[in-house]
Write a structure and sequence with these properties.
Shape: globular
Radius of gyration: 22 Å
Structural class: mainly alpha
Helix content: over 70%
Order of helices and strands: HHHHHHHHHHHHHHHHHH
Number of domains: 2
Number of helices: 18
Strand content: under 5%
């Protein structure tokens, strides 16, 4: 009876968290409309110029974030009464670091002699990042007080405003320079909106800056910052290296598929982001409940990611043609490779969130450092003409290899030092169901995409159910989520 009550409590928490996570995912998927329209209007070469500017700016985003957001969630969740002093000190530190980062971006762009048009785009992209990253920091406070719906409102407002304004500007013929200007305007307006929501729904803003306390926060943020650096380098360095070794057209071909993956990454990011405050609290209050969430998160992430990867990899040509048109058709091979990297990203997100929750962020930073070195080495070997000359295909292979390496290292550490999860018991059933589903897809892939994708997903679930891939807890949770 006690166990059933405990399970019911955890199921209720998971149901509420997942509902909020879905609300956070929605704004990210809205942005695909602007990505697709921009790529079609600008073409691979010009779109590659924009993607290069975004990636180059992203390499310096450690100054825009510095691991503050994850630290805010963890600390505010545990010390909600100190939210005023946390807010004041984090915001002041953030602006100081942001303007330092902006200066370094412009200086570095001139130093490596980027074309003048690319540098002009960088001015606006870097300023937009200051506004957006500050808005995301405010959203971290919403998350820390477990008011994730407010983060959803501000994020959805920013995405919808940017998408509509961006499409209008491109439709009117203002091109890339008009686009980056309107994105900056929308980011500033969205920041103002998020501040208004914070003041009205959370707390009034009082400037209580304490340099001693701020130094303590900076020190605490360093492990989170190192994890963030590893993530940024892994997602941006390939684009920058590709632009210098193969040109901006190759970047355009690569990035359109990478954008699809980045949007899909928001699924585990939003779900685990919503779970993070709870996991941080359970590390102190209930280790058994934390282990249960950990096991179920890995299971559900893999159950979702595997069929998604199978469908997208087999229909990559049709997806690219439908979204971006014939100019980008060669990007299908990129999508076919990166979607399998996405499977490991889903699970690795669980591992990193767990390490953050149990105060082992430094381990995530060490593993991130290893994967960075591997990524740079593989890109240097695979991308350039003097190497294997695989261009964007080589960059995709490097990303996949790094995510696999990260999975092995995270899985091994957590199995040894936190809780042991059997590899075969966790992954064998969905793998078997996935193989059967993929065979079905292969033989019927020339049929209607939506019909075959839906049928294959139904087959996957039936096979999983038949081989006991769902236990009693899973079945009860599904019933509760659908209101029964």
């Amino acid at each position: 009876m006690i166990l059933n009550k405990k399970m019911n409590k955890v199921q209720k928490i998971i149901k509420n968290v997942f509902a909020l996570a879905i609300a956070r995912i929605l704004p990210k998927f809205v942005s695909i409309f602007l990505v697709v329209y921009t790529a079609r209007v600008l073409g691979p070469s010009v779109y590659g110029k924009y993607a290069t500017a975004v990636a180059f700016t992203g390499l310096f985003s450690i100054f825009y974030d510095f691991g503050f957001n994850s630290l805010i969630v963890r600390e505010v969740t545990r010390n909600i009464k100190k939210i005023d002093i946390y807010f004041s000190n984090f915001i002041v530190l953030k602006f100081l670091l942001c303007f330092l980062g902006y200066g370094l971006i412009i200086f570095s762009a001139h130093l490596i002699r980027y074309p003048s048009k690319t540098i002009h785009i960088l001015y606006f992209v870097a300023l937009s990042m200051i506004s957006v990253s500050t808005m995301v920091t405010i959203e971290a406070f919403f998350q820390g007080v477990e008011k994730m719906e407010y983060a959803s409102y501000t994020s959805l407002f920013e995405r919808c405003l940017t998408v509509v304004a961006g499409i209008v500007v491109l439709k009117l013929g203002y091109g890339l320079f008009g686009l980056v200007r309107v994105i900056l305007f929308c980011s500033v307006l969205s920041l103002v909106f998020s501040v208004i929501v914070y003041v009205k729904k959370i707390a009034l803003i009082h400037l209580i800056f304490d340099w001693t306390f701020s130094r303590k926060l900076l020190k605490m943020a360093i492990p989170f910052a190192l994890v963030f650096v590893s993530y940024i380098i892994l997602t941006k360095i390939d684009v920058v290296m590709l632009s210098t070794m193969q040109g901006e057209k190759a970047v355009g071909i690569y990035v359109v598929s990478q954008k699809i993956i980045q949007i899909l990454q928001y699924i585990p990011g939003a779900i685990l982001g919503a779970l993070f405050p709870l996991m941080s609290r359970l590390f102190i209050d209930s280790r058994d409940s934390l282990i249960l969430i950990y096991k179920k998160a890995i299971k559900y992430m893999f159950y979702f990611a595997l069929p998604m990867a199978s469908v997208i990899s087999l229909f990559a040509n049709k997806i690219i043609l439908f979204l971006y048109g014939g100019d980008y058709l060669t990007s299908a091979i990129v999508l076919q490779i990166l979607i399998w990297a996405c499977v490991f990203i889903f699970i690795n997100t669980v591992f990193v969130t767990m390490l953050n929750a149990i105060n082992k962020t430094h381990i995530a930073s060490y593993i991130g450092g290893i994967t960075i070195l591997l990524n740079i080495g593989l890109n240097t070997l695979l991308i350039p003409p003097w190497g294997f000359n695989l261009s964007y295909t080589g960059a995709s292979i490097a990303t996949l290899c790094c995510q696999v390496a990260g999975f092995i290292l995270y899985f091994s550490y957590l199995n040894k030092h936190f809780f042991r999860i059997g590899f075969l018991s966790s992954f064998s059933r969905p793998l078997l169901a996935g193989v059967i589903m993929t065979i079905f897809l292969y033989f019927f892939k020339e049929r209607n995409f939506f019909l075959i994708a839906g049928s294959s997903l139904f087959l996957y679930l039936v096979v999983l159910y038949g081989i006991k891939g769902f236990d009693k807890f899973d079945k009860e949770l599904i019933l509760k989520c659908i209101g029964r």
